[in-house]
User: What shape does this take?
Amino acid sequence: MNATHLECANCHKNYEAGKLHNLCLECGKPLFVRYDLKKAAQTLTTDSLRNRQADLWRYKEVLPVENEENIISFGEGWTPLLPTENLAKKLPIKLNLFIKDESNNPTQSFKARGMSAAVSMAKELGVKKVAAPSAGNAAGALSAYAARAGMQAFLFMPRDTPKANIIECEQTGAQVTLVDGLITDCGKIVATRQDAEGWFDVSTLKEPYRVEGKKTMGYELAEQFDWNLPDVILYPTGGGTGLIGMWKAFDEMEKMGWIDSFRPRMVSVQSIGCAPIVKAFHEGEIFADEFPNAATVASGLRVPKAIGDFLILDALHKSNGTAVAVSDEELLNAVKEIGTSEGLFCAPEGAACLPALRKLIEQDFIKENERVVIFNTGAGVKYLECF
Assistant: This one.
């Protein structure tokens, strides 16, 4: 098998691979897939990648699916890494600034990566019904991949979720329930009903495989930069699976001898209206308290309590990174600035990284001529109500 076992990211208890698992039974924290990286490196080499398909499954030796017939794919991954010369000229210092544009994924967001891995594993393990809470894009991705796999999808979203996401799910066959509340309220419904309904819960980090799909952003970034990681990565953070996944990917690549111990300074970007990670980081906390009265137009950032909070904070600290909050006005203005400068209609979450970058330059956190990557996690066209 590719995977040797599952390991709790908190208490390190091991679980058998190739079985259905949600959270750790001992401490209730997320499980990570672990691999025999020495074995993987025998066939997965930097040279071998030159002749592989241009999607995330090019890294199949470090992904959990055993039988390739179970892979559910729309060609997700291998998204463009775009130099932003026009935008960079507007900054007060000279930078090598790039945008990793995840809106090029199927279903128009980075969520496709995670759902490809999670639904593929669910199929391999015999799952027929999947369920999840979502702020929008994850639901759209899960609905599409579940339909392709022949599964039923049950989705719970806040009532004010962008309409495009709701319609997307309905038109790809999911059963959609709108909830008067936040994504945390939706998550509670899934948790209380999953056993009676026979659902497998694929909530963010409540199963081990979505993070495996998202970690491929880290593999791609290294490959696109010819195995030299950037100095700084700014990542819009709701549940934080993308950031956590990339941090995991960097560790795996170092163990396979692809990169050295250098790590980018990881920056978590949130909205002032929902900034639990920013608050916890600057208060020196290991875990983040639930953020009260969470509110932001960037629906993907409206996650008042992330189950992987300790993993996000750990990556920020170990990388000498930081966490920054910006206002809704700033992030919406940034959508237009990026659009008029580079022709990209970014999601509000991704655009939030631009005002965050400016704040970090003012704080002298980012230096002249450093190589900086902003992650645009989705397509602005799905957020028309914001504009």
The chain has a mean pLDDT of 96. DSSP finds 14 helices and 13 strands in the chain.
